[in-house]
Amino acid sequence: MTDLFEAFKQDGRLEKLAAQMAEAISCFKSDAKNETLRESLIFKQFADKLLTDAERAAFYGLPEGCRMRENAKIISPENLKCGEYVFIGEGAVLDASGGLEIGSHTSVGLTVFLWSHTSFETNLHMANYSQSPLIERKPTKIGSGVFIGGPSVVYHGVTIGDRTVVLPLSCVTKDIEGNCIVGGSPAKVIRRLE
Ligand SMILES: CC(C)(COP(=O)(O)OP(=O)(O)OC[C@H]1O[C@@H](n2cnc3c(N)ncnc32)[C@H](O)[C@@H]1OP(=O)(O)O)[C@@H](O)C(=O)NCCC(=O)NCCS
Question: Alpha helices, DSSP H only, in the chain?
């Protein structure tokens, strides 16, 4: 480790890295929004990597028994209503910007995207900026005892009933009643459960 550091110092790579860091820092814009975001970015870069799944879930305010893997993300966590014993896999994105409910004993698999907004109108109307009024938000509800295999996508405004299995690589575009296995894109009921 010391040898590596010495090598970096001697051949000028350390100065180059320091210059690159300084250049990046010079792009920081200090307004209220950026400063709040920066705090969470700094946290994500360092502390998030050191937490266990249970500690990470507690840090993000999830209730008793929840577990959250690294690189999972909650958008607008203040609008998330989460039950107990929920598992959130690596790289999952939980978008609560339009409201998101997750029942207890539900698993959101790795790289599952739960959306509660869509922004495609902002692109079609050349209005693709933050907080555009063309962003549509609708609450999404995932029941209790649901398994969502990843990668899968659940659209904004969709309700998935209790005891549903969503098979990997599914895109859930419409409400699912519950007590069933669904799969495919768009997701269809494959089998009813007892
Ligand atoms: C749900 C599960 C138990 C069903 O197992 P099974 O009873 O043996 O059923 P099959 O695997 O035969 O699948 C039933 C049907 O669904 C279809 N299917 C399976 N996976 C699918 C998928 N991802 N998307 C769409 N259809 C799928 C099968 O082709 C089959 O269709 P058919 O009846 O027309 O032949 C099993 O598929 C499973 O556990 N899947 C999830 C695995 C996973 O995500 N693991 C992540 C780590 S926990």
Answer: 2-10, 13-26, 32-45, 53-59, 120-124
SS3 153: strand
Tens of pLDDT, residue by residue over 39-66, are 878 877 787 889 999 999 999 999 999 9
Q: At a CB cut-off of 8 Å and minimum separation 6, what does 114 contact?
A: 92, 93, 94, 95, 100, 102, 108, 140, 142, 148, 154
Range 96-99, long-range pairs (CB < 8 A, 24+ positions): 97/137, 98/136, 98/137, 98/138, 98/139, 98/140, 98/156, 98/157, 99/137, 99/138, 99/139, 99/140
Q: Is the full-model pTM beyond 0.85?
A: yes
Which residues is 85 bridged to in the sheet? Answer: none
Report cis status (omega within 30 of 0) of the bond before 63. no
**Pocket of ligand 1, candidates 167, 170, 185, 194: which has the most ligand atoms within 8 Å of its Cβ, to mutate?**
167
Ligand 1 cavity residues, CB under 6 Å: 149, 165, 167-170, 181, 183-184, 190
49 DSSP assignment: G
Looking from the CA of residue 150, the nearest atom of ligand 1 is 44
Query: What's the whole-number mean pLDDT along residues 167-189?
Result: 98
